[in-house]
Inverse folding.
């Protein structure tokens, strides 16, 4: 496992590997790695000749300066965790290395960027597209692995790949959860002990809603989920939307012939948690 910090170094390694026709898997992360991230690395190691993991807290995707400031950073621990899985390269650039000058590129993802996370975090997905496109350009992966926890992100990245005509296969990977159901997230470590005890209510409510979804209308079910979580004094639902899995259009009726995903964001004190569930 080689740790590289400069674009020129990783490009030079990748150049050699490409000449040998090696299949390259890529896992972009912002660090503070947990089993969710590691599951993506495992998949990549299994299905590619070479795996590159990047760790970079990308400032352009944070619309809240305090969120960027408090985002957990723990490189030594991350490298230790990765050593157990042995990806071939870990790319850890600085902000100056990735953005020697301001990135003014504006992507247009239409509807995908105007709902849910896009609506509530203006500029977030534009920042995600800026960094992921730069990293794809550097790493030139055959396969890139993304977690379904960030469901909308996958839809946006797929659209970006299409728009830029990139030759990379986007591989969505299932959400990894704690034993009590909480979706693993680097932000979970920012929760107080009391908040942590309460937050499994989010996944529990989503799961429960699946069991009787069709006995209520879509609107009624949405209200039920929001009320159930808002009853808890530690939590406030920012949004809960049920959308189709490709265009993220709001689902109006259970009879629509699409795959439906319930996406939620909950504010827990200063910490913003997201989760989702597929209604089959
Ligand atoms: P992040 O470091 O939060 O940018 O996440 C890096 C990648 O890991 C993204 O593709 C996330 O969707 C994925 N990821 C984060 N948490 C989980 C989880 N609990 N299960 C599966 N994938 C995850």
């Amino acid at each position: 496992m080689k740790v590289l910090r400069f674009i020129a170094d990783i490009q030079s390694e990748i150049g050699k590997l490409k000449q040998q026709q090696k299949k390259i898997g890529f896992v972009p992360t912002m660090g503070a790695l947990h089993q969710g991230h590691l599951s993506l690395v495992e998949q990549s190691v299994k299905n590619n000749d070479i795996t590159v993991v990047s760790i970079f807290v990308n400032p352009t995707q944070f619309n809240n300066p305090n969120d960027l400031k408090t985002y957990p950073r723990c490189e030594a621990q991350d490298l230790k965790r990765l050593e157990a899985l042995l990806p071939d390269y870990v790319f850890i650039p600085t902000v100056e290395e990735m953005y020697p000058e301001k990135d003014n590129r504006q992507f247009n993802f239409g509807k995908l960027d105007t709902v849910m996370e896009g609506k509530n975090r203006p500029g977030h997905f534009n920042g995600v597209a800026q960094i992921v496109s730069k990293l794809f350009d550097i790493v030139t992966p055959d396969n890139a692995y993304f977690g379904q926890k960030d469901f909308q992100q996958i839809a946006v990245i797929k659209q970006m790949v299409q728009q830029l005509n990139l030759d990379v296969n986007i591989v969505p990977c299932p959400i990894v959860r704690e034993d009590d159901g909480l979706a693993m997230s680097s932000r979970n470590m920012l929760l107080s002990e009391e908040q942590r005890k309460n937050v499994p209510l989010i996944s529990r409510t989503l799961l429960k809603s699946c069991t009787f979804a069709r006995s209520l209308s879509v609107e009624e079910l949405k209200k039920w989920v929001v009320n159930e979580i808002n009853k808890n004094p530690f939590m406030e639902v920012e949004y809960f939307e049920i959308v189709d899995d490709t265009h993220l259009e709001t689902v109006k009726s259970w009879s629509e012939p699409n795959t439906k995903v319930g996406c939620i964001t909950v504010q827990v004190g200063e910490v913003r948690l997201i989760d989702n569930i597929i209604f089959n």
Notes: DSSP finds eleven helices and nine strands in the chain. The CA atoms of residues 136 and 168 lie 8 Å apart. The longest strand covers residues 236-244. The first helix runs from residue 7 to 19.
